[in-house]
């Protein structure tokens, strides 16, 4: 007979499943229960969904009727007459309008019983039903209703709250409207307060033992106050908003407090509210409880028998996996000498052996990374040394010396401080990245030194379009080689009149910002520009080096462009991706 340790892992699983399948016959009832429960659950969801959709249609109809009543209200002669005086600021007929509007208020409340009260805020005064007691301690412009209509600048529905406008602290739902007029009207708002209890009755029942229906807004908050803790907990889950993203209506199951519930929802057409219904899954499946307990008893017996038979097989099958787990734990504590060993030749053993080969590759990669890091350090040192151009340093020190001989001590001191500051900013505490602000400071020190060395040769100007640009990250020593090219090559044949312009601006549409260095020097031929852009680090700290550094730091997100014509100067532009806050805010 073939030795067990030579069998494939697939064969071992087959043997195990054959033995377990004998026991699994005993738990067939469990699948029958699940099938029946699934059918009952699906039917309950579909039946409740029809009810929820109808409830949403009823709510939509009532709210649409309310909107129609208010539209009729706002095109009435009394309202339009008042609106005309409000638009011109004429408050002479205020009391006349107040009396005339009272009849319109009554008609609107009779036409739609959901309406608790109506309030109109205008520049010439307030209008509301005369029988209503106005809460004069509250100013409309200081209420949340006013703040929201100002913020949204459109008709808005405001969820359940205590009425701040009228006395009695009635719970209402508010609709804040802007008036309908044929001429411009400002600062006129119509507030329609709906009875919270009235809307609750329209939505449907909220009693325990059956389906509970309620309203949620787009922010997963209850539209009206609900004392039922299950409704409050369901609203707090935030489940409905994620479901609405896929469909305007539907149903699902969810778990809350360890219990399973069925959830149905349907969105309204008139606003962003949603009718939601929940019911206990246990209540739907209560008729299957006796079957459930019988199946659970059979399942328990089957489980014990299966546990006895399959225990040995499970332990045997997990031996190589446990060995692999121990090797992985040793690797976690940086013991890369750990290796998997097994007498088996099945698939799990093959995984362990491949893991061994992976560890061997990791050891080799670590060595390669160490070598690459050493090469990187060498490149950084070479890059840093490039800023300390011996010719530039010689000219600077020589200029300082002669200025001291000519008793121009103050200028010499400034050059020494600029040179010191130049090296300090260039080193940047060993960090490759700096900010545009520090890079500008670095190049200013360089320009000051070169201005002292080449007196009257050139002038420079720096323009930063937005203050926020100064905090954008850039590679260090970015501008110096560009300015150096302008001075040494662009102004090579000039004795005076040179001009260097450094400017930066942002393009919010593309999410990029640019940095440009321009001069009015001798310019270059097209072939020379191509050669300049292809220079390597071995040929000096030039544009080719900058292109390589930009590619390493930004990939394809950054680019460098050179525009030049003989006799017309040269412009080098670098485009960076925007980092940090939205550029539109600047």
Give an overview in words.
This protein has 586 residues and is of the alpha+beta class. Among the domains are: 75-199, Beta-Lactamase, CATH 3.30.450.20; 388-585, Heat Shock Protein 90 (2-Layer Sandwich), CATH 3.30.565. It contains 17 helices and 16 strands. It has helices spanning 9-24, 28-74, 77-88, 94-111, 144-152, 196-203, 229-236, 239-244, 281-284, 289-332, 347-387, 390-405, 409-427, 436-453, 480-490, 526-533, 543-554, and strands at 115-122, 125-127, 156-162, 171-177, 189-195, 212-216, 249-256, 259-267, 274-280, 433-435, 458-464, 473-475, 498-507, 512-519, 559-565, 569-577. The strands form 4 sheets. The protein has a 5-stranded antiparallel β-sheet with strand order 2-1-5-4-3. A 5-stranded mixed β-sheet has the order 11-13-14-16-15. A hairpin with a 2-residue loop joins strand 7 (249-256) and strand 8. Residues 536-541 have low confidence and may be disordered.
Q: How are the elements arranged and paired?
A:
Layout: H1 9-24, H2 28-74, H3 77-88, H4 94-111, E1 115-122, E2 125-127, H5 144-152, E3 156-162, E4 171-177, E5 189-195, H6 196-203, E6 212-216, H7 229-236, H8 239-244, E7 249-256, E8 259-267, E9 274-280, H9 281-284, H10 289-332, H11 347-387, H12 390-405, H13 409-427, E10 433-435, H14 436-453, E11 458-464, E12 473-475, H15 480-490, E13 498-507, E14 512-519, H16 526-533, H17 543-554, E15 559-565, E16 569-577
